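Obj.: predict assembly geometry.
Materials: sequence records (below).
Method: joint structure prediction, all chains together.
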Amino acid sequence: MNILDKMMRLDRRWIFLFLIVVCVVANAVEFEVPILVNREVQSIYDFIDSLPPDDIVLVAIDYDPNNLAELHPMTFTIVEQCWRKKLKIIFTSLSQNGPGMTDQAIRDITDSMALDRTYNGVEYKGREIVNGIDYTFLGYKPYFALIILGMGQNFRLQFPTDYYGTPLDSLPMMRGVNNYDDIACVMDISGGNITDYWISYGQGRFDFPLALGLTGVMTAQYYPYLGSGQVFGIMGGLLGAAEYEELTENPGLAKDGMRIQLPAHIVIILFIVLGNIGFFIDRRKRKQEGGVQ
Amino acid sequence: MDFGTFLWTSLAAFLTLGTFSFLYKDNPFYKIAEHLVTGVATGYFLIILWHNGLVPNLFQRLEDGNWYLLWLDSSRPLYLIPAILGVMMWTRFSKTWSWVSRWPMALYIGISAGVAVPVEMSARVNKQLYATMVAIDWNNFFGHGGFNLLDTTSGLSQVLIFVGAMSALIYFFFSKAHTGVFGGVATFGIWVLMIGFGASFGFTVMARISLFINRLQFIDDNWVQNAFNTVREPNPNWSGWFQAVFWVIMVLFIGYAVKEFVDYRKRVRSQTA
Amino acid sequence: MKRQIPLMLVLVFGMFLIFQYFIPHETSEKAYEFLLDWITIIGIFAMALAIWSLFRVTVAKVRTRKENWGYSIFTLVGLFSMMIFGWTAPNGEGWGWYFIFVLSVLMAIGMLVQTMSVKSGRGLWAGLMFVFLIIAVLIGIFDNAWSFHFMSAEPLENPMFRSFFDFVLMPILATTFSLLAFFIASAAYRAFRARNLLATLLLVSALIVMLRFNPYLTPIFGDYMARTSNWLMNVPNLAAQRAIVMGVGLGIVATALKVILGIERGYMGKG
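Observations (raw structure tokens):
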């Protein structure tokens, strides 16, 4: 058995180990990857940045812990940006484990909001974020398509109370807020096909501005909606999250992750190249031996 | 971070490492994590359905403040109808009565199908067609402000999108044999599709690796750094116990690895003998 | 009765909702709101089915002592702990006898399952179950540090409920999914071959997208890599995905119409 055969028959666990070692080493080394901001991410930032205080943004947290790696950083930066700009937020989570993700995100961001911070040269005083004044968390209901339609009639239809059991009318920020007409935009951060329903059932029927935060796997599928203007921005995967962190000057896990992403990508490309070299040498050899290709 | 939180974090780290150990092979650590998560996830969902679903949407509407008289004096007795329909769903498990569950099922299917027709037609088909058939920007055919093939809004790009989308659609049209001009267009369609799938794949690689990076960040930032107190702002609550917990967990995994290695050596020896 | 009524229901409600979209009248709007409201409630019951079926399978596994049944105990512990945490909450800072209560409830359930599983000596297990049950009931009655909340949502803020989500559910689910990173690496090594023109197109486009944020290529390509990748996403990818979106859209509409008109009846199952 020559080296080539050996390499082609390498136990996959060696490949796993190699990837782990590269990522762990990259994590230990301090360097920064420059982030170029794409137009589709910039437009989300610009839109939220241009909203006047007290406008309401609906942030739909439609992902499970499976996808928290890519989507949690998006939630963190966007929500923090909104609250620093004194916007109000309605959270919904129509995915099964979504409420827990939202609950955790709210607690963490609230902690961060208590500190004084400077973003893009603007100083923001720390403040306490209050449930019912700065945000409302509607919680979970099954059958997301019909919930999205129902919220277009009235939030109170399917959400008589919020996640914590308080009737919506007792929450100061929800007074006079009935349906999508009363909110500035919907930001759907999603790791599944709920996004399709926000586009067809939500934006399609009620015509509100919609932006998407998506996992890398889904990103490419939603570009047609960007081209047709049905969504005004797309944040794709960890890179999208890192771009948003760059824009809000609030570096977090995503930007830090891109540092490790770089060598990991090089490894994957190396694997593809090596695999192909092996494949071509093998094919040539077989051709020379007169075998079938 | 206080010691209690660190213990929780250590549990999370233990479960994370236990799940990763699956990469070597299936083992008790992974099995524990896998079985535990099924139970916890189901229990969690049950509670969310209860407190976010049944209580506000059904019980509180029916009870009218007088919980003990239950629903007998409710001012909104109509809500009993969906409740009964919901209970009918549960006949699924019975062989003789499972047909009863078709009624609520049919209601759901009918409603879902009914709302889908107009909105899906409009959002997925009509609006996409409008966006494809735009007036070609002849003035900026080769890019805005000079020759630029990579301009995504130039006239050329508009033409390419139109031709690409149409030929990909033709590729999906199987009622006619893919021969002649039709076949040529379909071939171009599959090229476009492949480029699209390639771009998707590039993103997928990033997505998958992000998932691992996140766990790595968790183990490093939240667990190891806290165990050894190398976090940016030193932890005033830190004590030697933090490290002790860290090492207990590490010894568990290292011990298992050593046992596996010894077993492996034994196997190899018995095979060669 | 078994087939006609469901078919009628689908037809009537399907047609009503299609027309309602085009002719929104005050009365039809009311009916539409009612339906959306009701269907949520039906949905909750439907979702509970899945939970019940998991419970049945797990208990059956323990009872019949199937292979690896021991691990199913972890499933039951996870399930019932979450249920207890989700229906109880501490009243103040202290916990009182709360954890003893949780343990005894779990033990009582364990003994119940054991009683159902063993063939002889059931009396002993049943007796133990009652002992644990009595301990739990006594703590439940006399301990004031915490209380039951079935009709209000306090337990959602129960620190134990939150911690189980944050430190058990989240890490395991996230890690299980992250194993995919390794399988894609292994697949990259073994499967992505430039066998023919189509595979080559796929590979080249994937490589460009993967290299788009690589700063070490900037001296060679300038920002061309990033711009080419942007073009790939916004022109060829957009065209390809648009064809798919339209295809899927037409498919959904066709299927929905088939369901409404009773041509497609798969949802009814057999019988």
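Conclusions so far: Residues 101 and 137 of chain C are 8 Å apart (CA to CA).
To do: check interface contacts against the pulldown list.
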